[in-house]
Amino acid sequence: MPEDHLSAPWSDALRAELSTAGRNGQVGSVLVSETDQFRIWLITLAPGERLAFHTHVLNYFWVATAAGMARSRHADGRTVDMACSIGQTWHMTFAAGDSMTHDLETIGQTVLTFTTIEDKRSANAPLPLQTFDRA
Q: What angle do CA 110, 99, 33 make, to 5 degrees?
């Protein structure tokens, strides 16, 4: 179960990164497949590693493929810590014009891995991808 809490003030670097995250549609570490209907991402984060602030506009779900502890900072100032278990799944939907901006960091001692699938048939157009890795 996610645990919301207030964290220490964000660094200038985090605030600067957040200020441009609305255009960052890279919601994973590696884009492994893209069709006219879906984007499929892998996320792999070693202990202490983080995925930069990014913005979700498409309906999506993720599945944890390794257990561990994650932290996510949200654009609204919330910080959410979550214990992830293998197979844990989370679904998000967005109405037209809605979005969510956050980062993701491993705060435990194990490598966290997720698969994220975005549905490009959502109410919003996909954000363009400017920089990403392909497997």
A: 60
Is a pLDDT exceeding 60 seen at residue 134? no
User: What total number of domains does the chain contain?
Assistant: 1
Q: What contacts 87, CB < 8 A, 6 or more positions away?
A: 63, 64
- Quote the pTM value: 0.88
Residue 130 has pLDDT above 80, yes or no: no
Taken in order 103, 101, 81, 90, the sign of the CA dihedral is: negative
- Has residue 25 been placed in a domain? yes
The pLDDT tens digits for 27-55 are 999 999 999 999 999 999 999 999 999 99
Q: What residues make up the domain containing 21?
A: 3-124
- CATH number of the domain bearing residue 12: 2.60.120.10
More reliable by pLDDT, 5 or 111: 111
State the DSSP string of 56-116: E-SEEEEEESS-EEEEEEBTTS-EEEEEE-TT-EEEE---TT--EEEEEEE-SSS-EEEEE
Q: Is residue 131 part of a domain?
A: no
Q: Does residue 118 sit within a domain?
A: yes
